[in-house]
Design goal:
The structure is a homodimer. By secondary structure, the first copy, chain A, is mainly β. Helices cover 11% and strands 39% of the residues of chain A. The longest helix of chain A has 10 residues. At the A-B interface, β7 of A face β7 of B.
């Protein structure tokens, strides 16, 4: 098992291998083989970046029974929601990505709490996925795992035709802190928990998915070429509300903790 | 005015300047300044690539009064459609992009005609767009224009929760043939036409948009950082149905003609 992070080294993004409280910069990018270069750095002092910038950013959306049922009850638009019967993937935008410890900035004209959704993220490896993949090929294509926070503004989510600002405003997609290789970790048997200012607000078994990563990859590969570095966010069960001034942390056992303070956009000419 | 194309030069993508029937490879990427290198090539012999691979691929969806009204009438799902009242952007996936002259491949299990949607595409320039842009800043941020074909499988579009396979199957997003700089062309005052096997099937004034590019950019920039090379597909009015064996061409005066044959996926073990 290798635990990688991606960090800002004076303006240059670098990958590093994480060992305890120390990080050593490496060559070899996200997929290795890695060769250590430079000194061991204090992990706490780094500016973390999203572990990958995906060619395509996939997101399952509703993928837990409880979350889908609650979403159906609370939906106030004509479109409503239903518990999905098939593995149908959705999309998010790279422009919304941010790293561990960076602020989630609530837009100036958003006056509701933001909803944090803690998600397991599969990262596709260097060979991509063959078209019409088998479940075995789908499993082999998963290079590693990370954590995503699918931050949402529910008022906009209900009112808008698309997820453009409700889910894709700048900084609404924290991802990280690490990219953990798939060889010695099984996050589907771990717990996901959400904590606000350090107090656990919700937790759920990560593996209680309606459709697992292989279901999605097999279905997608019938129509779509999935490439190296693509990410698949697998949905959330429980959520937590946060307001500016608070901090939200998502923990998945074995993958670390993705933490982000919530701040408020200040308009210059306000 | 500069007319650029991007083409496959023995495995390496290159930009070229198009002059009549000839193309000369250039340095300088999409945004220049360009310096010609190498011989003049026959435009007809090139393998065209999408003129840019956008960091984020935006698409307006319903953005013409007539198309939105027809979509509302034909919608058979609970979600329905409505004529949009605000400039709300959507997304498409880079994995679906293909170039001029490359085939649109209908998936093996898709048994309906494909619907071609001819769209004007705005390409954002090297400076990106400032957050909270004015209309003037939005206009200045448009580096150039190209053509997109938002190929859709309507049965899947109606049946699925998302546009994953109805609009984002491999090859469903032809873009090109050129990137035409914005300095001496006004596609909003031009016509868009769709032709099947060379016979015009539909045409409409490109500028009859519900929301123009500046409307979208201004609205998006309140929440989203729009970057160099991002593309904004602006929607279609009329459409045309095509089946394997036919060819679909989209023409916007001043931007050229984007042509693609339609073929059928052949499964190897069929």
């Amino acid at each position: 098992m290798t635990v990688l992070c991606r960090f800002d080294d004076g303006g240059t993004p670098r990958y590093g291998i994480v060992e305890g409280e120390r990080v050593t910069a490496v060559t070899g990018g996200a997929f290795g083989p890695w060769e250590k270069t430079g000194p061991r750095l204090a992990a706490a002092g780094l500016r973390y970046l999203p572990p990958v910038i995906p060619p395509v950013f996939y997101a399952a959306g509703l993928n837990y029974q409880g979350h889908a049922e609650r979403a159906s009850v609370s939906a106030s638009t004509a479109s409503g929601h239903q518990v999905p019967e098939r593995a149908e993937i959705g999309y998010r935008a790279n422009s919304a990505l941010t790293g561990h410890n960076s602020p989630i900035v609530r837009p100036a004209d958003c006056d509701e709490p933001l909803v944090a959704e803690g998600e397991l993220v599969a990262v596709i490896g260097p060979g991509g996925v063959p078209r019409h993949a088998t479940r075995e090929q789908a499993k082999a294509a998963i290079f590693g795992w990370t954590i995503g926070n699918d931050v949402s503004a529910r008022g906009w989510q209900r009112a808008d035709r698309t997820f453009w600002r409700s889910k894709n405003s700048d900084t609404f997609k924290p991802m990280g802190p690490y990219l953990v290789t798939a060889d010695a970790v099984d996050p589907l048997s771990a717990m996901t928990s959400l904590a606000v200012d350090g107090a656990v607000a919700a937790s759920f078994p990560t593996g209680d998915l309606l459709f697992d990563p292989q279901d999605f990859i097999v279905a997608m590969s019938r129509y779509i070429t999935i490439s190296a570095g693509d990410v698949i966010w697998l949905g959330t069960d429980e959520t937590a509300c946060v307001v500016p001034g608070q901090a939200i942390s998502i923990t998945i056992d074995g993958l670390g903790t993705l933490s982000n303070p919530v701040t408020e956009e200040k308009l210059i000419n306000e």
